[in-house]
Amino acid sequence: MDAGTRTVATETTPPAQSPEPAAEASPAPVQNDLPEMPLLRSDGTQTTARSLTGNVILVFFLPDCDHCQREARQIGNNLNAFKDYALYFVSTAPLPEQEKFGKEYNLSGQPNVSFAQASPDELYKHFGLFPTPTVYIYREGGRLVKVFRDETPVEQIIAAL
C-alpha cells in the first residue's frame, strides 16, 4: 500500500433471516384498585372490597363524627345523583351503631346503599391513616377515580362521578 492510500473497514451485512413468528400478545391484566379487604355486611355476610362490582363508592365514617353526619345528610339528600353507584358506608363501629346512623340519615333501606364493618388493622393496611369521612370513588372494574379526604361538599363528589 502506498502512503496515500487509506483503508476503510466495511461492515458486512449478515444474510437475511426469516423473521421469527410474533409471540401472541396476552391481554393486559385488568387493574382493580379495590383492596382485598374483608368486610362484614350489616346482614352478617362476609365479602371483600375487591369483590364489589360495578361503580362503587366507599365512604369511610364513624357514626359519632359530626363531619361524617353532615356528609351523610348531604349524600342522603342527593341520592338520585348516586343512582349509578353502589354506596358502601364502611366503619370500624359495631353494626348496630351503623344501622342507627343509616336510619337517622335516611340511608338505610335504599337500594344502592350498604353498611359494612372493617377492622382497624385492615383499614390501616390498605388505606393508611385517613380522616373521617373519606370517600373513594371507583369505576366499573375497580379502577380508582378520585379520593376526597375530610368533609367535602356533595357537589364536588357528584362532579367526580
Automatic annotation (TrEMBL):
Read off the InterPro entries from this record: AhpC/TSA (IPR000866), Thioredoxin-like_sf (IPR036249), Thioredoxin_domain (IPR013766)
Q: Which Pfam families match?
A: AhpC-TSA (PF00578)
Q: Which residues does the UniProt record annotate as the domain Thioredoxin?
A: 14-161
- One GO molecular function term? antioxidant activity
Task: From the UniProt entry, list the residue stretches annotated as the region Disordered.
Answer: 1-41
Regions of compositional bias (Low complexity) in chain numbering: 9-29
Protein name (database record): Thioredoxin domain-containing protein
The scientific name of the source species is uncultured Cytophagales bacterium
